[in-house]
Structure of DUF1697 domain-containing protein:
Amino acid sequence: MESYAALLRGIMPTNPNMRNEKLRAVFDGLGFERVASALTSGNIVFRTADDPADLEDRIQEALSAELGIPGGTIIRGHATLRALLDRDPFAGLTHERGSYLTVTFFKHEIREADLGSFDDDPLTRVIGFDHDARAFLTVIDNSTGSTPDFMARLEKTYGKDITTRTWLTVQRVVKKMEA
């Protein structure tokens, strides 16, 4: 039995069909064990012995059919996320109000992320790409009052099969997986 996190794209807790209790019910209905949510932004942890290769599609089909959620589902196993935390790619940096440490997870394998894709954006600092976690790591400067169009640029560069979480959220998801 392995522990997984489903990182759901496009979840808005104000939508009644996207509330944690309904999301968890879909996962329970799929027969997963120890289903729990981390925060209210589409992070569901669960345990299963099912083949991980089929999980993303099965979960997305169920979310679409039962709740009308068309967004993407990205799965990461506990070992992958724990190893990412242990590598500490943001060593010495602090997630705070004016500086967001972000992790963008890719659904599919990519050979290399374009680490220069934000060179012209003074509000975005690229830390790197973690191949094992398939994650693009960045620091977003929110201290200026103007918000960078970070998500739109990510989608333009990499498409919609991605989802972004703050570093604090990733830490909370892993903690929930270990509970």
Q: What stands out?
A: The chain has five helices and eight strands. Residues 2-79 form a domain with the Alpha-Beta Plaits fold (CATH 3.30.70.1280).
